[in-house]
Amino acid sequence: MSAKANPASLSCPVPIEDADRVQLGHGSGGKLSAQLVARHFLPHFDNAALAQLGDASIVSVTAGEVAISTDSFVVQPLEFPGGNIGSLAVHGTLNDVAMMGARAVCLTAGFVLEEGLSVAVLDRVIAEMARASRDAGVPIVAGDTKVVERGKADGLYINTTGLGVVDPNFRPAPARAVPGDVVLVSGPIARHGMAIMAAREGLSFQSAITSDTAHLAPLVDALRASGADVHVLRDPTRGGVASALNEIAAASTVGIEIDEPVLPVPGDVRAACEMLGLDPLYVANEGVMVVFVPAEQAELALRALRAHPLGAESVRIGRVVAAHPRIVALRTALGGTRVVDLLPGDQLPRIC
Amino acid sequence: MCLGIPGKIQSIRDDAGLVMGVIDFGGVQRDVCLQYVADEVQVGDYVIVHVGFAITRVDEDEARRTFEVLKEMSQLDELEWMAEAAEQGMRGLEKPA
Amino acid sequence: MKYLSEYRDADIAKRLIGRIKTRATRCWTLMEVCGGQTHTIVRQGLDELLEGSVEMIHGPGCPVCVTPLEQIDKALLIAAKPNVIFTSFGDMLRVPGSDCDLQQVRARGGSVKVVYSPLDALALAQKHPDKEVVFFAVGFETTAPANAMAVFRARQLGVQNFSVLVSHVTVPPAITAILEAPDNRVQGFLAAGHVCAVMGYTEYEPIAAKYKVPIIVTGFEPVDILEGISLAVNQLEERRHEVENQYVRSVRRSGTEPARALVQQVFELANRQWRGIGEIPMSGLRLRDEFAAYDAERKFGVGGLKVTEPAACRAGDVLTGRIKPPQCAAFGTLCTPERPLGAPMVSTEGACSAYYNLAKYRTADPAGAAP
Hints:
The structure holds three protein chains of three kinds.
Chain A: H1 31-41, H2 48-51, E1 66-73, E2 79-80, E3 83-84, H3 85-98, E4 103-114, H4 119-136, E5 140-148, E6 156-165, E7 181-185, H5 191-197, E8 206-207, H6 217-226, E9 232-234, H7 240-252, E10 255-259, H8 267-276, E11 290-294, H9 298-306, E12 315-321, E13 328-331, E14 337-339
Parallel strand pairs in A: 4-5, 10-13
Antiparallel strand pairs in A: 1-6, 2-3, 4-6, 7-11, 7-12, 9-11, 10-12, 13-14
Helix pairs in contact in A: 3-4, 6-9
Chain B: E1 4-15, E2 18-25, E3 28-33, E4 46-50, E5 53-57, H1 60-94
Antiparallel strand pairs in B: 1-2, 1-4, 2-3, 4-5
Chain C: H1 10-23, E1 28-32, H2 35-44, H3 46-50, E2 54-58, H4 63-66, H5 69-79, E3 84-88, H6 102-107, E4 111-114, H7 118-127, E5 132-139, H8 144-157, E6 162-169, H9 171-180, E7 188-192, H10 193-199, H11 204-211, E8 215-218, H12 222-237, E9 243-245, H13 257-266, E10 267-274, E11 278-287, H14 296-299, H15 315-319, H16 351-363
Parallel strand pairs in C: 1-2, 1-7, 3-4, 3-5, 5-6, 7-8, 8-9
Antiparallel strand pairs in C: 6-11, 10-11
Helix pairs in contact in C: 1-12, 7-8, 8-13
């Protein structure tokens, strides 16, 4: 019932409905909150568990172990070529569950909205999120929305939590890399980070670069079905491939060697990196994974990956060695070596 | 110092008295100040861009010429090396006999 | 990318390495005075590939590395002011000042933005007329035309809320200072291709003649650098000492004249401090008086600030080739990439940082006992 329709119910101060902008009242727990949920969230996230609108949702899982992962998304800009914060929040968390070899069952989503956020933007984010969840076949079964004062947040934050059922016969883990493994990557790297960078104030450039944000579980399933003994799976998000490999080298106490000439960096992504002086190895990805398998199964795993559109450009980029444990070394095209260390902070564009 | 990369001029315009242009860097485009090279460039030329400014024109003839020299050197070295290896191989064949 | 990828050709590069190794009858000591070249040398592992034939000393060629502590501290003071948007190239954000860096100023509430070009900073000033936009104008001769243009345009367009904190340095006085040092070990130089693209290379001719050192104007890709080194080694073996231009596709002997002209109009030569090295006479640029209104030091009254650099940091000795980074007592103890004392430890290609990583790799314990 809107205030306009029934002037008699007016009391002062009354929340005036503004269809264009999120208001503090949308997080008050009162009428505006209910409207926001009913009009903007529920129609998109339509599923039986959520429709109960109880204090908690009940889901069934098979007996055994579950994998749980949570992630908060604060990306700016909220919308970028190839997706928006909504699809990212679904893919990011589902991918983390998939990297454990688990099969995702459901997701939850928590929203922090900044007062003044455009409702049109919110609608697009929700629609993308719902589409990503539908495509993945994993429902969002619980959610929460809060609104904070203007200036106390940057438009919109989303936290998602994913729950998956562990597959006892398929248990990749960062600590399972052993010398003799090869390192594969499932597609071109550094796209997400550069798509975001293109839209930053003060750095902007024009390009056709799109984020690679994608749900990786189908690729993981392809590996599972191939029968390869997958030791490690990791989606190299923040900090890029370099950081992911460093984490694996540390967790497994092994050395990793990668070959610079075979790193799959698309031409325009490489050009954007050249322009800003960035190293694509440290740029974020949201739709590729690194895969560690025993060398003799490399072809088996690559065939399985390449059979899926998401993994069509899978390549072998390196190997696990016993030498230099915890250190990732890169062989350059000229045969030189350099250490690919963790960066102390974010990678910054440079002039020199 | 001075990260500078080559890009191809796609368009040139006057922006309130400043010569600006769009430069393509292998599929990525950016607005660049062409003021300093304005007299010697046209659309299609390559320039070296540093912090949003074209600082010099790439001399394509010179680039081709010097690269050919490098290529030839590389091939020449290869020939020398093959000749040397062949010679050594012959000697190797002679020895056991 | 055209004019980039072909100069990364591994075959040609390997041939050049072979040539240098065959030609060198002893190990020659060369210095590149250019952060971009250092970047390629370190990232491609060229040092390692030339071991025994050429030792490369990574000279004071990174504008970030040589920006004096004093100027960084001024930047920090200005950036912390409430109505200021402080803009900078990305690499300056992590350079340590006396008590923090620009990123920490931002964390404490300052407005600090990374821009790609000084014109982006000027555009920001036009977009936010209620704010003071300050640009940290660091760099060598390559960057000076861009920074000069931003100031010139600001005046032309009547943008009054824009100013620059200038820390400009020039290469030839630094090369001269290195050659004048009594314990100098450098036998030949690679001159920075993009500096010469702007300036030309006539300034280097008297230096090569006076000090009898080869100076090779060199590009930035592996093939360029190896060709530059090869030309220098040839000269040294033949006891020649000339200025030679390897980077002919981009460098003309007289440079880019319109760029130099505007730099002349906006800036004038001045004495300048180099971080870790000290003052080098007439090695820097400052704004001419007619552009004083755009001088952030005057606008914010920070011109008088004087700071002493930490004695433990021997960045100057490293940058001039007097010591190798591990010979500095602070190396790896007081000074690490996580907590850099001096600028060469800041960027991954800084001389100290590069050594730090390589040392870690070479001493890594296969038994897994390393921390």
